[in-house]
Structure formats: C-alpha cells, structure tokens
Amino acid sequence: MEHVVRIKAAGGIEQLEYAGITLPPPGPGEILVRHEAIGVNFLDTYHRAGLYPLPLPAVLGAEAAGIVEMLGPGVADLAVGDRIAYAGHPVGAYASARILPAARAVKLPATVDARLAAGSLLKGLTAHMLLTRIYPVVPGSTLLVLGAAGGLGSLLTQWAKRLGARVIGTVGSEAKAEVARANGADAVIVGRDADLPAEVRKLTDGRGVDVAYDGIGGTRLPQTLDCVRPFGLVASIGQAAGPIPPLAVEALGPRRSLTFARPSVMAYAAEAATYATAAAAVLEMLGAGLAPTHTQHYALADAARVHAELESGKSAGSIILLP
C-alpha cells in the first residue's frame, strides 16, 4: 500500500488527509515512480485553498524525484532503476509512489541529488521562464526580487547573478536578509512595512529597476509598480500575502509606461519542447552549484504542518517532503 496526502475539499489545512491507496500498474506511455523526495511550493497552498481548483479529491504536489519502478507499454526512453525528476501537470506528487506520464520524467545526472532536484526543479523552471522569456536578463540588468530568501527567490537571485545582473532583494527579517545576501543579492530591503519604492529609488539613483518579480501580492503589488523604471516590466508570480486588489490598466500607463505579466510556470512546463529545454538548463545549473541556501525536510505525513509554516512566512529556502 502507498500513502498520499490529498485534499477532501478546498479550504484550510484541516482539509489535508494522509491516506493509504493501492496503485494500478502503469498504462501505455506511463511509469510507476517511487519517490525519494517531494518538493513543496506555494502553488500547493493555492491548489489546497481552491484559488486554482482541482478535481476533488486530489493529491497535491507539482514536483518530485525518485526511481522508476515499473514501465507501462510503449515506454522506450526509460528503464527500471532510472533516477528521474519531474515538474508540472499532472499534479499528484504528495505520495510515496505514483503513476506518471513518461514524457514528464527527466533523467537526473549523477551530479544532482534527488532531494536537490525535488526541491528545485519547479522553482528552477520558474526562474528560467522569468529570466529568459518574460524579461530576457542581460549583464547590467537591475532586478527586484521580492521574497529573496524563499526557495524561488534563492534560485532566481543566484541565477540572475550568473547572468551578470544586479539584484535587489526584499525580506521580512534580518535573519532572512542574511540568507538573501548569501544568495548573492547586491542589496537587501528588510521589513514588511518598508517604503519599498523609496528604498528602491535610493538604490537606483532614482531610476527604478528594469524588472520586478512579485510573489507577495496583497497590498504590496501596487507598491512594486512604483519601483520599476518607465518601459520596465512587473511580473506578478504569486500572492503569499493574500489576494491582489483589482489592478486598473491606468496603473500601468501611460504615466508609468509599464509592461505587466502574470505568467504561469505550469503553462510554461506544459509546452513539451520548452519543458525539455528548460529542465535541461535547470539541471545543468543545479549540477554547477545552483541551490537553495537552506533546505528544510519533513515527513510526508506532516504536510499540513508544512503548509501552515509556509503560509505564516516563517520558512526560508526550499522545503521537501520525505515519503
């Protein structure tokens, strides 16, 4: 018998259920993968809360790493015993083992540990999307990364620095500021009540940043708009602080002349060619030393506790569940 964490209904952590299931054999084009580690993302809390609804009951989780244990008919590019990771649809990673479309599996190089891959692939795909497609970052670009001590913020900052960018990070505490600096942030703005636009203007000689990545949402997003130079870009990539108020098109321009993006990494990863290219780039970066500054490990059965800590803002770095 396998174990999963699933949601019975959309809502709070009380809707999470640790349960036993029996898996069928994999069908055509599928594999059975036994998980070694499972990545936790803010996306999981959005699925649980019903912001992005799933057919219920649903097993959560959009990334994991493990060992191929069984092949379905027609699977030719994988073998039993292969080390693989995956990210994106279909969700269902909060499990000791699962049936997965073989096309989603990415072979892990020997240089990448399963736990690192499980906690970094989806976040790495997000960073790749933001740095290459949403706003192609070049040497000399100036970036604002909100939540620079988080799992995504860590990878985004480190990758941007490797591209030659200047990174300004925001964090909620001095302890997290140290994490952001360890990630390579050139400057860190500390405090949830900081006057973000004023601080950014000081750090950019009044110009503003070229691009801002806002995973905080809530009332922070309107402030983020004031941090970006004319004809720069704001990417809204989450709402850790709560729902985002309605945004009038006049808030973007013509006075500010901003470009606004609300990209989905799940949509990005759903493009087969993009997924293959981006996943290979992420694994190459992980093998070269890109990694969250701090990784927390929990048992799969403790998923409700993990969601509570993630939503409280107390966590830093990457979080993985161990079956």
Please give a structural write-up.
The chain is α/β, with parallel strands linked by helices. It is 30% helix and 28% strand. The strands form 3 sheets. Strands 3, 5, 6, 7, 8, 15 and 16 form a 7-stranded mixed β-sheet that branches. Strands 11-10-9-12-13-14 form a 6-stranded parallel β-sheet, sandwiched between helices. Helix 4 (174-183) links the parallel strand 10 and strand 11 (187-190). The longest helix is centred in the middle third of the chain and has 21 residues, at 114-134. The two termini are 13 Å apart. The mean pLDDT is 94.
What layout of secondary structure does this protein have?
Elements: E1 2-7, E2 16-21, E3 30-40, H1 42-49, E4 58-59, E5 63-71, E6 83-87, E7 97-101, E8 106-107, H2 114-134, E9 142-146, H3 151-162, E10 166-171, H4 174-183, E11 187-190, H5 196-203, E12 209-214, H6 220-225, E13 228-236, E14 259-261, H7 265-270, H8 272-287, E15 295-299, H9 303-312, E16 318-322
Parallel strand pairs: 9-10, 9-12, 10-11, 12-13, 13-14, 15-16
Antiparallel strand pairs: 1-2, 1-4, 3-5, 3-7, 3-16, 5-6, 6-8
Helix pairs in contact: 2-3, 2-8
Return the structural class. Answer: alpha/beta
Helix content bin:
25-40%
CATH topology of the largest domain: Quinone Oxidoreductase, Chain A, domain 1
Count of folded domains: 2
CATH superfamily of the largest domain: Medium-chain alcohol dehydrogenases, catalytic domain
Strand tally is 16
Q: Rg, please?
A: 20 Å
First CA to last CA: what distance?
Answer: 13 Å
Please state roughly what percent of the residues sit in beta strands, choosing from under 5%, 5-15%, 15-25%, 25-35%, 35-45% or over 45%.
Answer: 25-35%
Query: In one word, what is the shape?
Result: globular
Helix and strand run = EEEHEEEEEHEHEHEHEHEEHHEHE
Major beta sheet, specifics? 7 strands, mixed
**What is the CATH class name of the largest domain?**
Alpha Beta
What integer is the average pLDDT? Answer: 94
Number of helices, counting only DSSP H or I runs of 4 residues or more: 9
Ranges with pLDDT <50 over ≥5 residues? none
CATH architecture of the largest domain: Alpha-Beta Complex
